[in-house]
Amino acid sequence: MSATTEPTAAAEPAAAAETAAEGTVKKTPAKLVFxxxxxxxxxxxxxxxxTAERREAVAALGEKPFRADQLSRHYFTxxxxxxxxxxxxxxxVRDRLAAELLPSLLTPxxxxxxxxxxTLKTVWKAFDGVLFESVLMRYPDRATMCVSSQAGCGMNCPxxxxxxxxxxxxxxxxxxxxxxxxxxxxxxxxxxxxxxxRVSNIVFMGMGEPLxxxxxxxxxxxRITDPAPAGLGISQRSVTVSTVGLVPAIEKLAAEGxxxxxxxxxxxxxxxxxxxxxxxxxxxxVGEVLDAAWAYADRSGRRVSIEYALIKDVNDQAWRADLLGxxxxxxLVHVNLIPLNPTPGSKWTASRPQDEREFVRRLEAHGxxxxxxxxxxxxIDGACxxxxxxxxx
Length: 393
Fold this sequence. Notes:
about 400 residues, TIM Barrel, cytoplasm, rRNA binding, 4 iron, 4 sulfur cluster binding
């Protein structure tokens, strides 16, 4: 894990394997991986660097520092992906700087579309052959990029395909930013039905636990939200960072002074069940995680999004809805209920419609705002919990 506040050794609490008749789960050993395997690093890219670092890097190559501003304008503002388009730089200078600061980081190896072409999942290959995925979703009033922060995930949540894949490595800041830039190019060039457009929202809900790759994710958030030409100029309020509940990292995020939204993947209101569904709960319990979330809300002024995957006969009981409502009422919060998306080999499934409706009703009775998430991308395994690109060739 990149965050220095997080443990570096793996823990081995119990996790869930399958649903028992009474709505509980059977325990099998689970492994939490906090430290990503050591691998070769991606080449340095403009998006890895702050504005000052870009100028220093250009100067170190023997060029005038203002060339860094020109490169930034081409990459972040004009969304150029071909150095030949950068005609305000002399050809020799352009080729040299592009080779050093704009290396090709990601290669698309597969694209899948659904929803009439307005949902597009891309499988990317990195320099070392590692594969991961991002999803672009266009709606009438916005366009959202769901980005990955790791190849795989070490949190081992048993109902999530990404968690079951294990962790291959952390992504670099630039590898994260390039997913957004690629989506922005796709929209700007009119490749998505609806005509040319722009990315308006970013959610760190793709592959990986974002706060387990803290330094790179924060760097990516800053590149995404820095005003152009330093960055892509997307509002911090349009960025959501998700977590399964790494308390020290949530506290560190609060201290950053950002206004990004925090999304907490809770999935159970009681420790007994959450220990099984979200193994990190064996380290930081529901009360500790919620306290950290409320502190973040107080510091940022943003309401926390509670992510809750509804699983038939596991966590969708009316009494659990009441317990969740009591825990959340009075706080700056919104609940996002997610009908469980199918994953290969899973015996679990989404809640019955009547149980979903009753869960919503009971939360609302406690005065807790709640919505049921649109399950976009399910047909192409691009919905929540379904991203599971093979992480090697």
